[in-house]
Write a structure and sequence with these properties.
374 residues, alpha/beta, Quinone Oxidoreductase, Chain A, domain 1, Rossmann fold, globular
């Protein structure tokens, strides 16, 4: 079938993206689903920094590719072997499908799935196939999703079925921002009630971590960012203390406000400087978690002796250490009870044709989560 989709032809295009226009909206051919695959109609897609990283080269991907990975959709057609979904079901996309058979999958860490990681890097679906074409040119899939398009063919294992009562524009955020941010708190760090928490970097994922800390019952939640506007929003969402990272004494102020540092600190900006703030704001015996993805060559200097003498924990978190089939319905239930007001993070709704301007808006820090509506 012919669809309109957002195509990236080369990496390393410099901003401003509204002028350099690294993404073109084109008519492409989408093949029907193969074995274990599903054809879906995209209803809404979140615009995330991961999409920018596939343009600027921070996360190299094969091009040309159809961009987009955070989305909600409606099932249109089932490929052979798919029996647990039906046409009309509402689903959320997750950018790492789970094969169910490799060691990480068997150990309960499906987002570390080894075949899925290889497929994502290669630009294919989990099956190893590509279902997108433009004339004689085969197009690559972005993280097995390619969600900036009217329709997509994806692996069944990319999809999590959701409550059809949830508006899909809001549901889109649960596949990446919510799954990562809330999961970092509840799954990776396992923050306990009464703990102290710092969140460094208040984009969509960072603010979801803040909301996760509220759900976990943290007694003190410190928010750190370069934007005073985002710091004000964080206070409305539950932050007890806010500090601007541009302040040269930011770490000292955090440590003073928390009587020596927080028990759990989260870095969500994808920046070594932000990670240093998070690490140095963590008290002795505490845990620092990073879910941000800086450029591959970035290095973090850490005093190894402090890891020992302070019994510190430094931990990575990929997509919230999530089990999507378990966590997405849980987080949606919390949202519907008013416990995770993620709809307040939506700062704009855009059309497919607006993709370059929307990417530039995100790049400049003027948006938290924009949702592309089809």
């Amino acid at each position: 079938m012919k669809i309109k989709a957002a195509v990236v032809k080369q990496m390393g295009v410099a901003p401003p993206y509204s002028i350099s226009r690294p993404v073109s909206v084109e008519e492409v051919e989408l093949d029907p689903p193969g074995v274990g695959e599903v054809l879906i109609r995209i209803v809404a897609a979140g615009i995330c920094h991961t999409d920018i990283s596939a343009i600027n080269g921070d996360r190299p991907r094969p091009v040309p590719l159809v961009l987009g990975h955070e989305a909600a959709a409606v099932v249109e057609e089932l490929g052979p072997g798919v029996h647990d979904l039906k046409k009309g079901d509402h689903v959320v996309l997750v950018s790492v499908p789970s094969c169910g058979h490799c060691l990480p999958c068997r150990q309960g860490t499906p987002l570390l799935c080894e075949p899925a990681t290889r497929a994502n890097v290669a630009g294919t679906l989990l099956s190893g196939e590509r279902r997108l074409r433009r004339g004689d040119t085969t197009l690559n899939h972005h993280l097995g999703c390619s969600a900036f398009a009217e329709y997509a063919t994806v692996s069944r294992h990319t999809l999590t079925k959701i409550d059809p009562e949830l508006p899909l524009q809001e549901a889109a955020l649960f596949g990446c921002a919510v799954l990562t941010g809330v999961g970092a708190v509840l799954n990776t760090a396992r923050v306990t009630a009464g703990s102290s928490v710092a969140v460094v970097g208040l984009g969509g994922v960072g603010l979801c971590s803040l909301l996760g800390a509220v759900v976990a019952g943290a007694r003190q939640i410190v928010a750190v960012d370069l934007s005073d506007e985002r710091l004000r929003l964080s206070q409305q969402l539950g932050a007890t203390d806010v500090f601007n990272a541009a302040d040269a004494d930011c770490v000292e102020r955090v440590r003073e406000a928390t009587s020596g540092g927080v028990e759990f600190a989260f870095e969500l900006a994808g920046s070594v400087k932000a990670m240093e703030v998070a690490y140095n704001s963590t008290r002795r015996g505490g845990m620092t978690v990073t879910a941000g993805l800086p450029a591959p060559g970035e290095m973090l200097p850490v005093r190894q002796a402090h890891l020992v003498s302070d019994e510190r924990t430094l931990k990575g978190c990929y997509i919230g250490s999530a089990v999507p089939a378990r966590d997405i319905p849980r987080y949606i239930a919390l949202y519907r009870r008013g416990r995770l007001p993620v709809d307040r993070l939506i700062t704009g709704r855009v059309k497919l044709a607006d993709i370059n301007a929307a990417l530039e808006c995100l790049h400049q820090g003027k948006a938290i989560r924009q949702v592309m509506v089809f």
